[in-house]
Amino acid sequence: MRVDLREAIAQVERTFGIIGIPVLAAYVITIVMWTLRRKSARFKQMSNGWFDRFHLRPSAKARRAWVIGLSIFAAVAYLYCVYCGKSITEKAGHDAKFLHILVSYSLKTFPYFIAGCVLSAVIERFVRRDSRWLPKSMLGAGVFASILPICSCAAVPFSYSLMMTKRIPLRAVITFMMVVPVLNPFVIVFAGGVLGWTYVFWRIVSIFVLGMVTGVIVERFTGQLDPEMPEEGCTTCKGCSSGGVKLSQAESWWDAAYMLVVYLSPYIIIGMLVGAAFTVYLPPYIVGKYLSSSFFGLVLAAGAGVPIFLCSGEDVLILAPLVQMGLPMGHTIALTIAGNGICLSSIALLVPLFGKKATPWIVASFFFGSIAIGLFINAVTPLLG
Questions:
Q1: Residue 271: left if φ>0, alpha if ψ -120 to 50, beta else—which one?
Q2: With 0-12 CB in 10 A as exposed, 13-18 as middle and 19+ as buried, what is 302?
Q3: Under 8 Å between Cβ of 367 and 302
Q4: Average pLDDT value for residue range 180-195
């Protein structure tokens, strides 16, 4: 039975190259239509006419059905990726082609993206009314983040919804967004068994420190007061999206989730296209192969970790043999933070939600912060024995 299941899975994955053709076509059409509607008022007016003429605007009932259908598909894709399918790293290691990787990358990213949008809608509709249970401090935000099993693609829209409540300081929102993809509860337990609890200790301490420092920096240079509630302090950032998607105008949380999915889909598609190409031409196992105990190896760990997509413990599997071969703890933590905390898909979501002013600070913090943390850990580890 087990052999038959593996063969069935292998048969399914052999079709990814063919499935990738319509997937790529759909992505390209979406990006072209989205770009034309943004750049050309005439095309936007004309396309709006098509929507009205052919009754393409979904009703409230249809929007609800879309959200339910996407959620079910996301759950199936998640179960497949976690329990059945090969990891993207493994496929890249076997020279899988771009279309195959694109389908795998989409299946891997899609569940977290949908989960982030749905959770964001729930936060918007229910938590805005009573935000007393939400953490107001950076430490509280980090602890709250550490119990949620989501990756960076879900963390960005989720964090945006927290910011839009205008009840949480911006520094706490940023701390939450940076901590949540790195401290996935399942991965922490998994990492403790594979890499040891010293590694887990540094992983937890490092991301908490980096998240808090980045939160203070982002709030200092991009934070702004809400004129309606100045007593709350800096709760949003300069350039953060407030007009692109108005979740507060949604009739229900179904509508809010649908609006967020539609608004963010072009950005996540761009991230998946670039991320898939990056995985094909610079897969994570190559990064691991060329890591060393030198400063260049540390910079490589942080620099390559930022764009690549590592989730559900893939970093642990990559690092396990390298740690056994003597990879310094600082290098290990640098790749962990940069690889889990952010990726090209989540960067694509940062721009429309947190703006062009805050995004560079966040991305730079993951890169330079990972290097600084790696240097510190490598310096103090010998002293600690």
A1: alpha
A2: buried
A3: yes
A4: 87
